Amino acid sequence: MIEFHDPRAEPGAAPEPYDLGAHVEGLCIGLLANGFPDSERFLDRVETALVDLEPSIEVQRFNKGNASIVAGGELLDGITKECRAVVTAYGH
Fold it and tell me: pLDDT per residue over 44-56, tens digit each?
């Protein structure tokens, strides 16, 4: 007879509400593609979801252009100057 083990455990801590928030009106969010194929297409969907959720959000797009290198200082400076938050994406 085969028995299967259910790996899900009962939570060890009680859930706590997440009370932090941000004023999103006029918020600028950066979307950084890493240069792999489809990373920009994925961020297209992220942008649509963000704007659908909150139309006042501004989105700035960035692309490393080469997945094998780190994001350079100039790129990072531009992101931090323009945006309050950033979403990065990896393609495949």
Answer: 999 999 999 889 9
CA pair distance 68, 77, nearest whole angstrom: 20
Total-model pTM: 0.72
Spatial neighbors of 22 by CB under 8 A, at least 6 apart, are: 84
Q: What angle do CA 43, 44, 47 make, to 5 degrees?
A: 80
Q: Alpha carbon 73 to chain centroid distance?
A: 20
- Distance between CA 92 and CA 74 in Å, rounded? 25
Residue 75, Cα to own-chain centre: how many angstroms? 17
Contacts 24+ apart (CB under 8 A), 19-24: 22/84, 24/54, 24/56, 24/57
pLDDT per position as a tens digit, 11-25: 788 888 888 776 777
The stretch 37-43 carries a mean pLDDT of 89
DSSP, collapsed to helix, strand or coil, labels residue 61 as strand
